[in-house]
Design a protein that fits this description.
The complex is a heterodimer. Chain A is mainly β. Chain A is built from no helices and 11 strands. Chain A has strands at about 5, 10-15, 20-25, 30-35, 45-50, 55, 65-70, 75-80, 90-95, 100-105, 105-110. The mean pLDDT of chain A is about 95. Chain B is built from no helices and 9 strands. Chain B has strands at about 10-15, 20-25, 30-40, 45-50, 55, 60-65, 70-75, 85-90, 105-110. In chain B, a hairpin with a 6-residue loop joins strand 3 and strand 4 (about 45-50). Chain B starts with 8 loop residues before the first strand and ends with a strand. The mean pLDDT of chain B is about 90. The chains are: A mainly beta, B mainly beta.
């Protein structure tokens, strides 16, 4: 297993467009997290899945954001009608029975 | 959410030990103390975690105060590859398992 994989690594989009990011967690990890990170700040929690169930969503996750994890495997994060303020690094992490979480390399979104 | 407080930045000379402090005075009894680090342009990387007792692993040691209101991450011999932002995080294990990051400590290692 090569770890948590995120796709794409970089995305440039025009304001108002929709974008979708994918996260493939480590096999058999039942917990999956999405975070957003802007320059100079620590990652901010967005949402958490246990298997296919979305158990928690941050207040940061406005109605333009939606995340899914069908079948409890990979996850997608969609942002509709992107705004310049959405420009950030979007990080995915997964964890299994242990305490530690494993993060992907992130998807860097630039909204122009 | 229980909060952590860390210095914004620290410096260390290469091959010397580094002690990175963290205060978490509002920690609850079920919160684990985690440390992650983030190298430039990469996702955070797990370093170590603990609940009450001091912990050692191949990367670092974690010293936890008896009252659990503070902890210290110890890198025994800093290398240039240890230059990163280090985050001290409290992980809730009841009602969710998410991690809440602060702004971390940016460690500079001087050759």
């Amino acid at each position: 297993d090569t770890g948590v994989s995120q796709d794409p690594r970089h995305k440039i989009t025009k304001r108002g467009q929709n974008v979708t990011f994918r996260c493939d967690p480590i096999s058999e990890h039942n917990r999956l997290y999405w975070y957003r990170q802007t320059l100079g700040q620590g990652p901010e929690f967005l949402t958490y899945f246990q298997n296919e169930a979305q158990l928690e969503k941050s207040r940061l996750l406005s109605d333009r954001f939606s995340a899914e994890r069908p079948k409890g495997s990979f996850s997608t994060l969609e942002i509709q009608r992107t705004e310049q303020g959405d420009s950030a690094m979007y990080l995915c992490a997964s964890s299994g029975r242990g305490q530690e979480a494993f993060f992907g390399q992130g998807t860097r979104l630039t909204v122009v | 959410d229980a909060k952590t407080t860390q210095p914004n930045s620290m410096e260390s000379n290469e091959e010397e030990p580094v002690h990175l402090p963290c205060n978490h005075s509002t920690i609850s009894g079920t919160d684990y103390i985690h440390w992650y680090r983030q190298l430039p342009s990469q996702g955070p990387e797990y370093v170590i975690h603990g609940l009450t007792s001091n912990v050692n692993n191949r990367m670092a040691s974690l010293a936890i105060a008896e009252d659990r209101k503070s902890s210290t991450l110890i890198l025994h011999r800093a290398t240039l590859r240890d230059a990163a932002v280090y985050y001290c995080i409290l992980r809730h294990t009841l009602g969710g398992n998410q991690f809440y990051f602060g702004t971390g400590t940016s460690l500079t290692v001087i050759p």
